């Protein structure tokens, strides 16, 4: 499934700004994980992830976000998920991630 | 009498999306609304993903997905002959607890109307899930 990831370091805000376009599932979640890890190892800064163009995510993708949340939390950083579509919002709600990341 | 569609799927990550598209197409044709179609897509994908991640079989490993299309419901069975697991050891995430393991099955149970899981170590896993068409609403 197609997934495009844009990662931008906003130096002024001191933030990593990620944007996911397409679908995250078991076939590409490892790619998302690598991008998050690379960003955090380059600059230890909090992360926002814009989900407005994310059409689908499964437990594998949610697992990547949970893992990154754990890493960020240990470093005193945060991860914020922005603008999820209704279907994505439903999964964030089921998994409980909406309470800590939205 | 149900229409029956059976897929024999290679146990590789890249084919999970193919099953998801098939599920979406069938659910749409059966008359489910957009939200229910999304629920079915996610649930089927999660069942396939569990198999691909946990069946621990070789490169030629395949699993079966069957769709039973009836007037009032869609039943999907995802079955493998993989490693299986001890259902007694599965614990569902509790509210407030954020964790990755066990999330797939938890999501399936949250999205589908009926879910039956059977698994035996060394024999395989069988997940049967049903979604009912909502009728009588505007």
Strand order of the largest sheet of chain A: 1-2-3-4
CATH superfamily of chain A: STAS domain
Question: What is the chains' assembly state?
Answer: heterodimer
Task: Report, as a whole number of angstroms, the end-to-end distance of chain A.
Answer: 25 Å
User: Could you name the ranges of chain A where pLDDT drops below 50 across 5 or more consecutive residues?
Assistant: none
The CATH architecture designation of chain B is 2-Layer Sandwich
In CATH, what is the class of chain B? Alpha Beta
Structural shape of chain B: globular
CATH topology assignment of chain A: Transcription Regulator spoIIAA
How does the helix and strand content of chain B classify structurally? Answer: alpha+beta
Evaluate the radius of gyration of chain A.
Answer: 12 Å
For the termini of chain B, the CA-CA separation is 27 Å
Number of domains of chain A: 1
Calculate the mean pLDDT score of chain B and round it: 88
Main β-sheet, spatial strand arrangement of chain B: 1-2-3-5-4
Order of helices and strands of chain B: EHHEEHEE
Number of helices of chain A: 4
Main pleated-sheet profile of chain A = 4 strands, mixed
